[in-house]
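ESCALATION

Customer reports they have been waiting on this structure for their group meeting. Please prioritize. Original submission:
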Amino acid sequence: MTRDEKHDYAKILYLKENLTQKEIAIKVDVTEKTISKWVNDPAENWEKLKASIIVTKEEELSRIYMQISELNTCIFNRPEGSRFANSKEADALGKLCAAARSLETEVALSDIIEVSKRVINYLRPLDFEKAKEICLVFDAFIRDCLKK
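Update from on-call: job pushed to the front of the queue and completed.
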């Protein structure tokens, strides 16, 4: 494997598997120091990628909807005639609804990564060289998404 191929393989293992850096280094045949360098490279941002995979869009939406529900329950439990949001509650509801709308309409980075992994895994047994090529394209695209 070339160094770039080892890098890409290590990144997939880091993001997808629950392996230590030492285990990844052994599988990829590089030093632990190299893995650590790749993981901590600010341009790569593997930690942020991993975090975006862990918290899915559905989980985040569920949390937002639970907060909206909790706030509405608090408002509706007030005596009749005073069941309306004060300015802070109205502001919070507006922000939560905007966040939910944004999550519902935008493609999350975790979704992009999941689709890219599925495409690469599908293609790998059919055409390994093409899978490596596509992996580089997805990697560049994801890096570009992280910059925005």
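Sent to customer with the following note: The chain has two domains: 3-53+109-147, 57-105.
Escalation resolved.
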